[in-house]
Amino acid sequence: xxxxxxxxxxxxxxxxxxxxxxxxxxxxxxxxxxxxxxxxxxxxxxxxxxxxxxxxxxxxxxxxxxxxxxxxxxxxxxxxxxxxxxxxxxxxxxxxxxxxxxxxxxxxxxxxxxxxxxxxxxxxxxxxxxxxxxxxxxxxxxxxxxxxxxxxxxxxxxxxxxxxxxxxxxxxxxxxxxxxxxxxxxxxxxxxxxxxxxxxxxxxxxxxxxxxxxxxxxxxxxxxxxxxxxxxxxxxxxxxxxxxxxxxxxxxxxxxxx
Length: 258
Hints:
By secondary structure, the protein is α/β, with parallel strands linked by helices. The protein is built from 9 helices and 8 strands.
């Protein structure tokens, strides 16, 4: 397919590179800054632009990978003069109806993964969730997704939003805990890499058992001596103190649920 990317961030970079490697033509890359547009365009042989009006009107699909807050404002100008094309956003939390009233053929191609520009991922095992306004557009979405991943599923918008919420807990919040751990270690002259065997074993365990069953530590048995000692050590980190206290209560309460 001939594809235009609207956005040149982390997700756009990874998806555009993966699609280009599978033979799709990445015609153009739009970004608010020329530097970002050029950086991705050089990777996929596309033309960079900072003008929505300058985008090709002949592409088969337009993949919009921008911040949720910017998506609604971009849609009218993007669709204008390109009504016969297919438009897809990549957001986990935005409804596909953000295109409604402007485009006829629209949907969602949502790869559920964490992305970085500096570290390109292997898309083959990344789950991609699709949704579309009609059957023909759904097949276009499926074709795009299946060309890079063997795990493509149709998922209604409400379930996709719940999935995205769950992903925030499983990825973003967990990574923030890594950052807090690294901060505590740094304050005491220790490197974060001492935690890597623990991090890796924790990840391996939840491949084999339910996360609740894999839980260990003072919170699950509500060991108040250890918890109190830890909270005392966090007096100079008030936000981390509150997170530790609330997280400990949550772990203990969840452990008691059937």
